[in-house]
Amino acid sequence: MKRDAMSLSTRAIHSGAPGPRRNQPVATPIYLSATFESKDVDEQIATEEAKADTFYMRYGNPTLTVAERAVAELEGAESAAVFGSGMAAITTSLLAHLGQGDHAIFQREVYGGVHRFAYELLPRYGVDVSWFEATDTAGFENAIRDTTKLVYLESPTNPTLKLVDIERVASIAKARGIVSLIDSTFATPLNTRPHELGIDGVLHSATKYLGGHSDLLGGVVAGSSELVDRVKSYMRVLGGILDPHAAYLLVRGIKSLGLRVERHNANGLAVSRFLAQHDRVRAVFYPMLESFSQVELARRQMRGGGGVVSFEVDGGLEGAKRVSNALTLIRIAPSLGGVESLSSIPCVTSHAMLPRDEREKAGIGDGLIRLALGIEDTEDLIADLDGALSA
Ligand SMILES: Cc1ncc(COP(=O)(O)O)c(C=O)c1O
Description:
By secondary structure, the chain is an alpha/beta fold.
């Protein structure tokens, strides 16, 4: 059976593995060797020139190659590169494409670390940065200058799950010769395939859904071989490579991505519907919820809404603390994408460094709780939330 005739869930299990082999391990071996030996100097030169994964570990490693092939296949891209964290993947990809005198346009609602990199660090290297709102494609178009080299997107956003019209922004960028990058961590390749919608480079914090078990830190960029080779050449200098142990865990996590995302999607929809009808909940944010402001765009560019649901309770921060502290199954911790459900209050965690008026402009009230739903049974999650809201 041809690979591209198979479902993404099936490909998640088999992707990355080399072709037909005999007497080879079914599980991915962990190559714990910082360096690789050549038969003679000519072979060593050839290995280096071919950018092979058997030269020196900062340049690559066979365990990492399996993870890279797997993500490339799931994103429908020619190639991928893995990194030691999502931030390493993002910053290396940005540095590979931007230099002094360039202009870059960033979506305002990006992950906090990316916001800081674009706001504080890029201008120090002579890069001019403009911002636009996820929901305002015209704002992106109006920000384009002759020197614009790159547009950076994230969809859905944290914590209010706003969506950017990926296909539209990608087509405007392409027509103007602007490189487009997107952080697709919240969507996963099972729910959105941005490369197919025209995006040049797709980024993930592999720490989240791709790894899936809250036991590794990693990042990835997927795209054309040209784009990935360019980013990899910077990775070799900047050094943010993934450890082979973590690469093994990533490959293992990806195998169950299809099953996990199915359950994350089902939990997200059921929990958001439960919260939307609860009289102690003021607002619910979830892309596939019937009342969500961008539900039509969600249905167009997503196969499911994912596992993150945010909701606002009465009583501001004190109200949000009361509900969070009363949860017994859902644990208080940052991050998302793992098998276990977590909760956090953005105004005192991920978005604490934003001034209050900017937070309010972004729709992040003090009473907002972000749930990163895991893959527990839906009924248990709803019972936990029902109990906490009644407490
Ligand atoms: C959407 C998103 N992008 C990027 C990152 C950064 O990833 P990492 O923590 O793996 O560096 C995070 C981390 O929370 C995130 O949520």
